[in-house]
Amino acid sequence: MKMLKFLAKPFLWIEGRWSRCSKWFKRLVGLLFICPVFIVGLLAVFSIIYDNIEFSATYKPYIWDEKQLSERLEVHEYSDGIKRLYDRQNEKYIMDDVCWVSDVSVDDSLAVIAFPGKRGYINIHTAEIVIEPQYKSAWIFSEGLAAVRNQEGMVGFINNKNEMVIPFKFDAKGDGISTPYVFKSGRCFMSDSLGHLGIIDREGNWQLEPVYDYIDWHTVDGFRKVQKDGFYGLLDSTFNVVYKPIYKEILFKEDIDNIVLVSDSSRCIVDYSGNVVISFLYDNIVPLGYPTTMSETPDGGYYNIEYIVSNYAKYSINYNYGILNSKTGKIITPAIYSDIEMISDRLFSVNEGAGISYLIDLNGKPIE
């Protein structure tokens, strides 16, 4: 206690002296204390403002991406998000605020140039705007024609003089990206008001009615895949249906002159004329065995289960399983199960997924 009183004496002395001072003296002392803190804070604020002003004055956007259109033209995208068209021949920028510029087809020189809300065409060799930006959408030229969409949403085709060759008569609701509206060998994909795809000729007549969700741009010996409601089919070079769109996938085989048709529970090899070459294919096959006797391990901990390999196997197609007789090759069940186990010499346990399991016999019949 005495020690505390001794330590408190200086503070008590200061308090006594301070209480005797006038209020003006106290204000002066407070002002002298506050002013340096205020000045230091003010200098810090001015320092921050000055640094930002200096940074803003010296900062310049830089090129972070560029695309070469030709020996003359490049598209430069700056760090501030602005794209500019650069003329290498004259070493200057000729256009700002460009949204994008397309590639061109091999036999053409006109590229689509896009500005906000409108599309036109530029010659990538002369750097001249050939067709003023005016269309809502536009596609590259192919075989002398280019598809364009007017502000009302209709699609037609123009030539390189901006003359209408096929009028705006297609109420095309497709995206025109996965299946572009460009001509190849006198034909072009086109969509209808529902987004279904077909094929037109250079006069704008339907060669293939718009009934498909997807038409493969690439062909193999003139044959192309089509898709409808999630399933694939095959067309020949004159758009006749070789295989209806009922397959999960159609695979072209490079090593053989045939194709593979894949459904949920089957797979086969066929030719381009609709004939079956090999009626049954599978991804994998696993022999099935069933448990017989159990014996205790030497340490007395667990049981060893002995299995007998049966004459049956489970085969897989698209991650589904079926049962076949591995000796005769006879199919017992289609590949419709998520898993299969053999539990005795006469019974299988099958799983359909979603927690549904049951037993079937050697003929594939459910056990009631």
What would your notes on this structure say?
This protein has 368 residues and is mostly beta strands. Among the domains are: 63-215, YVTN repeat-like/Quinoprotein amine dehydrogenase (Methylamine Dehydrogenase, Chain H); 284-360, no CATH class. It contains two helices and 30 strands. The chain has a four-stranded antiparallel beta sheet, with no helix packed on it. Strands 5-6-7-8 form a four-stranded antiparallel beta sheet, with no helix packed on it. It starts with a helix and ends in an 8-residue tail after the last strand.
Globular, elongated, flat, extended or rod-shaped: what is the shape? flat
Distance between the amino and carboxyl termini: 95 Å
Please provide the count of β strands: 30
Residues in helices, as a percent range: 10-25%
Count of helical segments? 2
**What Rg is obtained from the alpha carbons, in whole angstroms?**
39 Å
* Model regions low in confidence, pLDDT < 50 over at least 5 residues: none
Architecture blueprint of SSEs:
Blueprint (H helix, E strand, L loop, with lengths): L1 H19 L2 H36 L4 E6 L4 E6 L4 E5 L4 E4 L4 E2 L8 E6 L2 E6 L5 E7 L1 E2 L7 E4 L5 E4 L5 E7 L12 E2 L2 E5 L5 E4 L5 E7 L1 E2 L8 E5 L2 E5 L5 E7 L1 E4 L6 E4 L4 E4 L5 E3 L5 E13 L6 E15 L2 E6 L13 E4 L5 E6 L2 E5 L8
Antiparallel strand pairs: 1-2, 2-3, 3-4, 5-6, 6-7, 7-8, 9-10, 10-11, 11-12, 13-14, 14-15, 15-16, 17-18, 18-19, 19-20, 21-22, 22-23, 23-24, 25-26, 26-27, 28-29, 29-30
